[in-house]
Amino acid sequence: MDVTDPLSHDELTYLLGLAFQLTHSEFVARVHAISPTDLRPVHAMLFQVLGQHGATSTELAARLGVTKQATGQILDFLERQGYVTREPHPEGGRRRLVMMTDKAVNHLKLAGGVLNELESELSDQLGQQNIDLLRQELVRLIRHLAGDTLPPLRPIW
Hints:
This protein is mostly helical and 157 residues long. It is 62% helix and 6% strand. A two-stranded antiparallel ribbon has the order 1-2. The chain is globular.
């Protein structure tokens, strides 16, 4: 660690937040450069939660850590834009199962490629050993603080 860098004396939470913000902003900028879209980071997080099997809006709200009303508004937008559909739940009742469309899956594939490219560049610049160590230590920190029950990753709007 370069102790002459003023950042080396800053609080850990500040450094973690700044690292996330910078990495995430670079990722979002690259995705938008390849495929300009009306999607925001919260939408991609929702797609990650949906996965291949879908989820109800209540499940999405809990996993994203937002209100059911906010989730409903997000889903209304994504449905209008053709990224999700709401289908009858296989178990019946009034619940609806939210599913990604091919448009959403294609966006995730594109974003995944950008993310892999960004991580590869960081590995080239910082060294794969350092990236592996960083990942290990972040996992240790997360498990120390959260154990096996991970909290929702609150979206950046």
